[in-house]
Amino acid sequence: MARRFTVHERRAVRDLAGVWEFAFLGDVDPDSIDLGDIDFDAIMAVPGCFDATPDHAGRRGLAAYRLRVPVTRPGRQRLAFDGVHHWCRVHWDGAPIREHAGGFTAFHADVPHAEAGTAVLVVLVDNRIGPRSPLHMEHFDWYHFGGIARGAELHSLPSTWIEGLRVTTDDVHEGRFTVRVDYRSDEPATAPLEIEYDGRVLTAETLRLDTSGRIERTFTVPGARPWSPADPALHTVAVRLGEDDMRERFGLREIGTANGRVTVNGEPLTLLGFNRHESHPQFGHTQPLPLLLNDLQQIRDLGCNFVRGSHYPQDPMFLDLCDEYGVCVWSETIGWQYPVALLQDPDFLAAQRDHLDEMVAAAANHPSIVLWGILNECPSYDPAARPAYESLLGRLKELDPSRPVTYATLNVYDDVCLDLADVVSVNTYPGWYFGGLDEVPRELDRIADHLERTGHGAKPLIISEIGAGAVPGWTDPHNGMWTEQYQSDLLEATARHLLAAPDRYAGLAIWLLADFRTTAHKDMLLKRPRSINDKGILDEYRRPKQAYRTIRALFRDRS
Ligand code: ADA
């Protein structure tokens, strides 16, 4: 996993990023494919999205990637993928070893034993919308790119290895935290354990290990600097267990809610920022480092302290950078207006749950993540959907009781699940999908009044989407819809209204940071000039529109 620090120093890790052999196979059934018959007649970047490249732009179907990998340490091998869209089957020397569905989360594929030499890795990747990838749907408002979109690595594991490492803050003021190490071992074994914090050994002991288990140790480091957006202090924990090791960066901090506000270390913080899609005309869902840095620099330049990762888990490197820059993140599972029938379908829910588990496993140590979210704009107004909300929000609480949970509702007035969320998050488009500019303050008041009247007033309220389309460069003397001026006026009205009442509005995520390609579905295209959702204050190449300057002035002046 591409991170801002070295995760393993003892464990042998090979980065598989580079140019792989490639074949686009088209509309065929993966089960009918004989790997030996594939003609790898092209090459493809990993990480990368094949349907964002000129040769395969917009094509859907099965593709095959191949790489010859040197195995230098015999024994257990682990292939670690950070995200493959939308479905894949991984083969090691011709044998299938793992299937995975859902593109925005990490997974791995293990080979229990490999001899030293060269292994042939083939990954069948399917970017079609269909039953193999139950989380993806055609009518989402974004284009689903396909491919090995995020990083890939080969790990050679020793006979006892660390499976996961979690650090949680117990008391930010006392500097108390717990380190939880999940391990596996081919056989029961005795192994030395060492836990280091910022280069200082906190414990060194010898342990008797079973074939799998969890080691938990709590430490107090008096005077340890807490993490906050104003002072994003980070610490490193390094765990060495036998011949294996793992390190993680974390921040000591507590997130809570009180009196209608989100709190960081007990202090209320108004969350101000944008929704962010991971999409680029040339790279698809792949996020090259300069692009991530660009986004972070513009987010900071705007005076934001908040990003909603719409509508799926964001790139691990983006989260690392948010940790460092002190940007708070709402991390949500993939979702977009799923119909109620899907939310009642046990297979779909099982897939959502697996995906949610993967999101939390990969991202729980990031101090920047202040909120977990699920199911953007799904039918939370329909009692038939409530069990799905109960189950997924409940699962989040079970996996991580330390963070508030939320979901963006499309219809707050009829919502029947608000009691299940710690933070009420409302998507609304006054002045765009309904009413004119004067509707903006009216609707924002109406929402806050409604929540107060219906007994949800004590919960923080985040306006999780609001915005207007603007065709880059478009002006007209009427300042009509799609002009940069209209977008700027609408966002100005929104920001002024919210900034004046921090006790009523705990946060704002403007829709949208940067423009992105939408789905190829006709219903959506007819509402999206250039096939682009253009409610960004940046265009898809990150060039600022007029609203950028407007919001920058308002956000930066707020203190
Ligand atoms: C919804 C949705 C977004 C986007 C937006 C829009 O609120 O959550 O993903 O589709 O509308 O641009 O209309």
TrEMBL record:
Any GO BP: glucuronoside catabolic process
The keyword Membrane is assigned to this record: no
UniProt-listed InterPro entries: Beta-gal/glucu_dom_sf, Galactose-bd-like_sf, GH, Glyco_hydro_2, Glyco_hydro_2_cat, Ig-like_fold, Ig-like_GH2
Gene3D superfamilies reported in the protein's UniProt record: Galactose-binding domain-like (2.60.120.260), Glycosidases (3.20.20.80), Immunoglobulins (2.60.40.10)
GO molecular function: beta-glucuronidase activity; carbohydrate binding
Residue intervals of the Glycoside hydrolase family 2 immunoglobulin-like beta-sandwich domain: 162-253
Chain ranges of the Glycoside hydrolase family 2 catalytic domain: 259-553
Entries under SUPFAM superfamilies matching the protein: (Trans)glycosidases (SSF51445), beta-Galactosidase/glucuronidase domain (SSF49303), Galactose-binding domain-like (SSF49785)
Pfam families: Glyco_hydro_2, Glyco_hydro_2_C
Record-listed E.C. numbers: 3.2.1.31
UniProt keyword annotations, A-Z: Glycosidase, Hydrolase
Entry's family note: Belongs to the glycosyl hydrolase 2 family.
Name of the protein described by the UniProt record: Beta-glucuronidase
Organism ancestry: Bacteria, Bacillati, Actinomycetota, Actinomycetes, Glycomycetales
